[in-house]
Design goal:
The protein is elongated. Helices cover 42% and strands 32% of the residues. A six-stranded mixed sheet has the order 2-1-8-7-6-5. A two-stranded antiparallel sheet has the order 3-4.
Length: 208
């Protein structure tokens, strides 16, 4: 089901791009039939795009530019969805977005490259549940300065600063920012997180 939803979102995004550049119904049908999505357009050759009906150099340039922006937005959106699932204890969404053999490095793993999802499922079940981080009454987070790089047609890396704010039930305010890197890979039309790296949180001056 998650795969079908992602594919539908990708197709909808592609159709929106083609609408924006004034593509004909024949071109739209070619893209739909061949399952060409924004993240793949950048890696198509000029000949392949002509074969899909995008005839002129100017049309191909506009299409590539629009698709790049749309594909980057898709990766940012998936990352935001993943982070929301983590702080709200949404283990189903987390499971759908992560590969079974994912790996990650973060302060909690004490420098070890930990494979699989069991490590995080423990925290989702015990620390992040019932709609938020245990012991907090309100949590807010934001992705700052995201940068997305595609590695071929089916892989992407996103780096960003994650700003985290929480008000605990005792009134204590928690505020920090964390540099993070996440690697996404598309398999059978669905993006999955395959690796994550999170650095030590950076606290504001005067806070520990």
């Amino acid at each position: 089901m998650a795969q079908e939803l992602q594919e539908a979102d990708c197709e909808e995004g592609m159709m929106a791009v083609l609408d924006a550049v004034g593509a004909s119904m024949e071109v739209k049908e070619s893209f739909r039939r061949e399952k060409v999505y924004p993240a793949t357009v950048e890696h198509l050759t000029e000949e392949e795009l002509r074969g899909l009906g995008v005839e002129t150099i100017g049309e191909r340039a506009r299409l590539r530019s629009r698709c790049k922006a749309t594909a980057e937005s898709e990766i940012v959106g998936l990352t935001k969805k993943l982070l929301k699932a983590i702080v709200t204890g949404d283990s189903k969404t987390y499971d759908n977005l992560c590969a079974d053999d994912m790996t990650f490095l973060e302060p909690e793993t004490c420098g070890q490259n930990v494979p699989g999802k069991d490590f995080h499922f423990f925290f989702l079940r015990n620390l992040f549940r019932d709609g938020g981080a245990l012991g907090s009454r309100e949590v807010r987070q934001e992705i700052l300065n995201p940068s997305v790089r595609f590695l071929g047609r089916d892989a992407a890396v996103i780096v960003y600063i994650r700003m985290y704010q929480a008000i605990m039930k005792d009134g204590k305010v928690v505020l920090h920012s964390t540099p993070e890197t996440r690697v996404w890979q598309r398999s059978s039309g669905q993006w999955k997180l395959v690796h994550a790296h999170r650095s030590l949180p950076i606290n504001p001056p005067g806070r520990s």
